[in-house]
Write a structure and sequence with these properties.
Layout lengths: L8 E9 L5 E4 H4 L3 E4 L7 H7 L7 E6 L13 E5 L13 E5 L5 E9 L3 E5 L9 E10 L1
Antiparallel strand pairs: 1-2, 1-3, 1-9, 4-9, 5-8, 6-7, 7-8
């Protein structure tokens, strides 16, 4: 049976969990496998490495460290701005907002704190700083 190699387009099913057991993503929920090309940088390099050599129907559990996934949580990705920077309306903790920075760069950030004078925004990926565990099942080489 042929196994996955760099350059192959493959389909895998997975359940991704955190150290506390919480599921953060799953192809089971979508009903369709994740399809990507090994070596094309479409998924974490650590995931690509683990899929190389797998054959249809094979399953395994892997851990991708925070450093190999979304990186550490960085304090410089958290900013506090004056509330007057936002249009009047509801500023709700947990809401995602699109922020435009100088030079036209835009970034989605999460409101983490609102006071009468300020709004604190976190631009870290929600899974930054966390190790990710994947229960993988290799579906096929596409």
């Amino acid at each position: 049976m042929r196994t996955a190699a760099p350059g192959d387009t493959v389909a895998i099913h997975y359940i991704g969990t955190l150290d506390n057991g919480r599921i953060f993503d799953s192809t089971v929920d979508r009903g369709e496998p994740l399809v990507f090309t090994i070596g094309a940088g479409e998924v974490f390099a650590a995931l690509e490495r683990e899929v190389v050599g797998m054959a249809a129907g094979q399953a395994k559990n892997i851990v991708i460290t925070a450093a190999e996934a979304y990186g550490p949580r960085l304090q410089e990705n958290i900013i506090t701005v004056g509330r007057e920077s936002f249009p009047a309306g509801d500023l709700v903790v947990g809401r995602r907002v699109q922020i435009e920075f100088g030079g036209g760069a835009e970034r989605v950030m999460v409101i983490t704190e609102v006071t009468e004078a300020t709004v604190t925004l976190d631009g870290n990926h929600p899974l930054a700083g966390l190790d990710l565990t994947f229960a993988l099942k290799f579906d096929r080489i596409v």
